[in-house]
Amino acid sequence: MTFSNDPYGDFRRSLEEMVDARHQERRDPLDWDFMEELLISYLELNDRTVHKHIIRAFTDVVVSFRRHYCGGVKNAKKAETGGRRRRRRGAGRALTSPLSTEPTEGNPASLTCS
C-alpha cells in the first residue's frame, strides 16, 4: 500500500510502465484482453475513492498509445490534458498496483485508427 499526493500521476506512470512492459513494440496493436485485465486489477486492488483517478489515467494512457500508434499528434502532451491543469483531489489516498505483468490468453484485438 502506498500513499500519494498525486494519485492520477502515480496511476498513470504505473499503467504506462505496465503497458510498455507488455507492448515492447509500439507498432503492435493493444491487447484489449490484457488492458481489460489491467484495469480490473487496478480497480479491485484500490479503494473506490481513487477509482476516478484510475479510470482517468487508464483513458489517458489508451488515448496516448493510440496517438502514437496512429502516427502521433503535434503537442500530444497538451492535447492529452486539453491544455489545462486540473485541480488534484484525493491527495494522500492509498494506492496499490498489480504485481504481475503475466500475459493473458487469446489473440490481441486490433486498434483501429480513424
TrEMBL record:
Location of this chain's protein in the cell: Nucleus
PROSITE patterns associated with the record: OVATE (PS51754)
Record has Transcription as a keyword: yes
GO biological process annotation, one example: negative regulation of DNA-templated transcription
Record-annotated OVATE domain positions: 1-64
Gene Ontology cellular component list: nucleus
UniProt xrefs under Pfam families: Ovate
Keywords recorded for this protein, A-Z: Nucleus, Repressor, Transcription, Transcription regulation
Ranges annotated as biased composition (Polar residues): 97-114
Major location category of this protein: nucleus
Region feature (Disordered): 76-114
Domain of life, source organism: Eukaryota
General function of this protein: Transcriptional repressor that regulates multiple aspects of plant growth and development.
Protein name: Transcription repressor
Species this protein is from: Spirodela intermedia
